[in-house]
Amino acid sequence: MMTGLLQPTSGRVLFNGAELGSMQKKKIGVCPQELVLWEALTCRENLTFMGNMYGVEKRALENRVNELLDYLSLTDKADQPASKLSGGMKRRLNVALSVVHHPEIVFLDEPSAGLDPQTRQLLWDFIRALRDKEGKTVILTTHVMEEADALSDRVAIIDHGKLLLLDTPDALKKTMGRGDVVELQLGDIAMNDAIIQRVSTLDGIEEAYELKDRVAVRALNAPSKLPELVGLIEGAGGSVCDVTIRGNTLEDVFIYLTGRALRE
User: Of 139, 198, 248, 259, whose CB count within 10 A is highest?
Assistant: First the structure.
């Protein structure tokens, strides 16, 4: 719908305040989840063909093709047919095709699906470069919460076609989900049970429990509660020897909002 291929079932699509229909399609680049390549053409020919369809000037297109091949570590495969590439190489070429014409807005639909860790990092660096060096707006669809957290300025959580929440990753993790976990190592572990009972009565505490002889406390924005926790422990005659904080994750937030039922 946002690329103009389908009519919105509700709402409007605006780019810089203007309706989608008035926008030149060459300003949009789309990388679908399923690979769309010309298998008989080489990597260079694939990119050149796509650039020609967008009307990119010949010299500028040659430079852009070489740039993308280098960016995505495909230079040594430039003259090999797409059919001979590995799955990861095909995925990278698929992404390159979506930006060969220098679009202002790039839609990437699960671009890292099925990639090995090294290739995923390479692709993530390229996506960051699109945003930071080329100034493009990147709209990324992903089920990998780590990817959303690593790449996004803002995250929209959508379930059953409905937008549930839209905010920065940090704001989502601080205000939603089951919260961060603070682990406290007490000077006297015999006090753990008594401290857990007291902590459980504090406002804003999701849960308190013992974990490997430590007192674990889960709460939204848990680091902000640390002074109160330490004060409670010291007020009870105890002491804190060590503190560890494990942050809330986007996956925590996603599960909190959408539940654990499988999505078919």
Answer: 248
